[in-house]
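Batch manifest, entry 17 of 40.
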Amino acid sequence: MRLFAAVLPPEEAVAELREAVRPLLDDRLTWTAEAGWHFTLAFMGEVRDDALPELHTRLERAAHRTEPFGLRLHGCGHFGDRALWTGAAGDLDAMRLLADRADAAARRAGIPMEQHHRYTPHLTLARNHAQGHGHRQGHGHGHAATPLRPYLDALAGFEGTAWQVDTLSLVRSHLPVSGVPGEQPRYETVRAWPLRTP
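Output type: structure tokens
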């Protein structure tokens, strides 16, 4: 299973973001479906079934060691010209701690993880069509890439209403199999654990 640990925004936050993004939707970028709006904490990739019981145990422990924290959707950012995202504000130290604990939980469950970098909370909104065509990957200005500046300017002042993060979710992504261009992955929450209650 392709799995990742995540914080999922509540419906109210999704609705606010939907309103902010709606005027920007066009066919120049590949926009993430709302089902894909989440903050990935630790991406595990393909996980073997026999690693799941240990992973579940360790993620549950990570959740129980972390107190609920306040978060809101905030502003926007980008990764080169590849991706447009909205960020988070609030208790980001607590969010980074939860991300670190989820990463450690996966490692201790024997899942080979990528090199651990300082966590940047981001919820991906759109990707450039040029992304994924190898010769343009990683180069700042593939000629087919749409400039992100107008979208960044439009979302720069976006502030969502704060909510209390009280759940750590384990999400499975089902990659598209149809071969239809632009088809999105399907996301399924496999397990969810409450954060520590005082």
